Amino acid sequence: MIMRPDDASVARNMIEEVGAIISTWPCNSQNRDHCVATLARVQHTDFLWPMCIREVAHISTLITYTSKHSVEVQVNVMSENILTATLWCVPLLLKNMDKVLEVPPVVYSWQEQEEEGQKQYKTQKLERMETKWRNQDVVQPVLNPEPNTVSYSQSSLIHLVGPSDCILHSFVHEGVTMKLTDEVAGIMAARHCKTNLVIASVNAINFHDKIRKGCIKTISGHMAFTSNKSVEIEVLVDANSVADSSQKRYRAARAKLSQKKKKREREKRFEEGKGRYLQMKAKWQGHMEPQP
């Protein structure tokens, strides 16, 4: 596709769409109830170069591993090799979108590919379970915070989910949620650094629950780590129904650590962020080195 002025942050929507398509196809290839795959996790995303208006984007996908109830998909967006991403999708029954179907096994090109995929599956499953256990806290606004503190840069957006935000069966398109998390992260980074920034890498996004049409989404975030040239931000997505007062607010994506251990957990989060930063820096240096 050719990039247009209204395609800002379109890469997130593109990788989610192609990931859902390639994940749905093998699940419907057998004689069984029809399903549709939905995005459950973005494993990692590296933005190698900016994508500009009028450039041509080419998206390619490959299924790299299947478990009983999920599919790992590798997505590459080519425009001077700007982006690579790894997604995890799960197939949902069309007649009952709350039921997860089993995934048919895939034939791997080599044994190491299956072993590596199984290792990645176990790792991401443990991390998703861990973030789901930490889903009860809410980012509370702080009055008159001191400059350059975590409270000073934290930001929130409130969004009413409309029909244009949804796919079939009135559930929110995950790409819409990712775009809003980008906006919150951008606001926070600009507020902290007093300048414009671009997203260089997405460590992981966990989707814990579906968001339905008519819900109010609250997207909030706070700083996790800063280096001399980059910042790491944690973003939380909560949802609650406008029409149904009996439905309580729930965590739809990501997580927040306990406020009771705020100081200690912030220090822990900083050290974890520092480790991820050093890994990402080494990876980027490998991308930028001239190839023989």
Describe the 3D structure.
- This protein is an alpha+beta fold.
- It has two domains: 10-126, Hotdog Thioesterase (Thiol Ester Dehydrase, Chain A, Roll); 150-288, Hotdog Thioesterase (Thiol Ester Dehydrase, Chain A).
- It has five helices and eleven strands; from the N terminus they run H-E-E-E-E-E-H-H-E-H-E-E-E-E-E-H.
- The chain has helices at 10-27, 111-133, 150-153, 174-193, 262-288, and strands at 35-47, 58-66, 71-78, 83-93, 96-100, 155-160, 201-202, 205-206, 215-226, 231-241, 250-253.
- The chain starts with 9 loop residues before the first helix and ends with a helix.
Main sheet: strands, sense, barrel: 7 strands, antiparallel
Give the SSE string: HEEEEEHHEHEEEEEH
Helix content: 25-40%
Give the overall form.
globular
Number of strands: 11
- CATH H-level superfamily title of the largest domain: Hotdog Thioesterase
CATH class of the largest domain: Alpha Beta
Which structural category do the helix and sheet elements fall into? alpha+beta
Distance between the termini: 31 Å
Strand content: 25-35%
Number of contiguous helices:
5
Mean pLDDT figure: 77
- CA gyration radius, whole angstroms: 19 Å
Low-confidence stretches: 255-265
CATH T-level fold name of the largest domain: Thiol Ester Dehydrase, Chain A
CATH architecture of the largest domain: Roll
Structurally, the number of domains stands at 2
InterPro entries: Cytosol_ACT, HOTDOG_ACOT, HotDog_dom_sf, Thioestr_dom
Region (Disordered): 253-292
Domain HotDog ACOT-type: 151-265
GO molecular function, one term: long-chain fatty acyl-CoA hydrolase activity
